[in-house]
Write a structure and sequence with these properties.
mainly alpha
Length: 187
């Protein structure tokens, strides 16, 4: 069966099913097929009808604003706090320490990965050279990729713990105190 707009009623399994009579639903005739269908409010309601006149020509009530002016002012002040923190010397130092580790580490790891791929395609003879028994240079280099991934992760965590975490935590506390003061003590 089809709905009042000719679309089939589809169940959760994706197969078209006959329309069932639901309490309050009025059967209508489908003009195209002459079969009985039901007025489906999900299909029949016009999304463009929102805010238009309701029934007797009276406009529908307007939707209240999501925020009032006071709340917007507090949000703007809180945003200013974050911008102030972002411009601070402590924040710039934390970001600088982060970049001084991450940029060289990413470049080094990327070059190591590209070298492995290039060697595997450009020098298959070298990569096939046995090292110990059935283990060849390509296998050692491939396992080296995994090893360097774990070493880089360990080095990053150590660097963060020793050089950035304490300063970042202090910045977080300072920021929370400043925003708490802006919002009037309530979060």
């Amino acid at each position: 069966m089809h709905s009042s707009h000719g679309r089939p009623h589809v169940g959760g399994d994706g197969h078209a099913r006959p329309a069932e009579h639901h309490e309050g639903a009025e059967p209508t005739l489908n003009e195209a097929s002459g079969t009985a269908g039901y007025a489906d409010p999900w299909y029949d309601a016009l999304a463009s009808g929102w805010g238009e006149a309701t029934g007797a020509g009276t406009p529908s009530p307007s939707v209240p604003a999501a925020r009032d002016e006071e709340r917007e002012a507090r949000a703007s002040a809180a945003a200013d706090v974050y911008l102030e923190v972002q411009r601070s010397a402590a924040f710039r130092e934390v970001r600088s320490r982060y970049r001084r580790f991450v940029v060289p580490a990413v470049i080094g790891f990327f070059l190591w990965y590209v070298a492995y791929v290039v060697m595997a395609t450009a020098a298959p003879g070298l990569m096939a050279r046995p090292v110990v028994g059935a283990v060849n240079v390509a296998m050692v280099a491939g396992l080296g990729q995994f090893l360097t991934t774990f070493l880089l992760t360990w080095a990053y965590a150590r660097h963060a713990r020793l050089r950035r975490d304490r300063a970042a935590l202090e910045l977080r506390w300072d920021t929370q105190e400043l925003t708490r003061g802006v919002r009037g003590g309530a979060l």
